[in-house]
């Protein structure tokens, strides 16, 4: 073949080629050898698939569903260029009874759109939003292999490693962050044998490049650099990162930045005093001294007064958990929760924020009744004595260890003096 990245040379009979590939696939799965007609990019992908433990009868797992999928898609950078991708590929997919698909950097399908009958047919092999089609999960396929090799790929018929996908042909190209160069995901077109034409590979590559150009216009690098990131879950000394610089804050400064980030409109000195100190006798000069030290740490112009407020936008890990909970993305919220907010803080307002966040998440976990999420919480340091979570866990996964732990907690609760 003159170009090993193209699935079919001009003039090749697709039916005969598919038959040859099926025989080659059988030879590889039975004997581990790759017959000569198989393209190098496919042969290498088949070997990676076996090494990853993928079998020819494997099925893609759906990892994101309902609210989790919706919240994750809304926050993903490629959401901003989906209107452009639909404009360029949507009509082509609908007219040709193909599918337009976009995945993230982990190979999880975020959008699958196109002809309704084709979507129903693809759904039978779990080619659906939320399913993971990484090469390491389901073997050779265009979006997964494009991510693995970092360039546009066509996969035709039995070049797919998993048998359920072999009636299909697809072409995909990775999309990169124009500022950092990291892979954000891939754009894919999936359908019948006609997609093995060289034009489909060039077309999907052009769409990926257009998406990158649009991202560069929508996300100028200086604007992104102005947003600071605050990490305060599961740690007493928060980490503030901005413009390539990270600062570990003292405990008191951590409390101040957490509260000011939570109140971007600002807080008066009196409100900050009440929020920070249990002792009402603490004089205002003590707070002003802390704020002066924090201002020197943050740099000029970043902490304003009257009211006290941060002049730069700050996004915190606690805010991420809150947003995902509001969107109903319980799994995504639990994944982002690294522990209680500033667990050692006794500042009244921080304690209220900490309880509200933890109570909201644990209530969502109990309501969701997912045994894995409940187990993760119950076995974490902050959940080992959580009676409600242990009861919920035993209800859905009644292992001997879980029942024993629940019995011990209930015994402690019933002991004299317990409350």
UniProtKB/TrEMBL annotation:
Gene3D superfamilies given in the database record: 3.30.450.40
Pfam families reported for this sequence: GAF (PF01590)
Domain GAF: start-end pairs: 104-214
InterPro entries: GAF, GAF-like_dom_sf
Full protein name: Transcriptional regulator
Domain of life: Bacteria
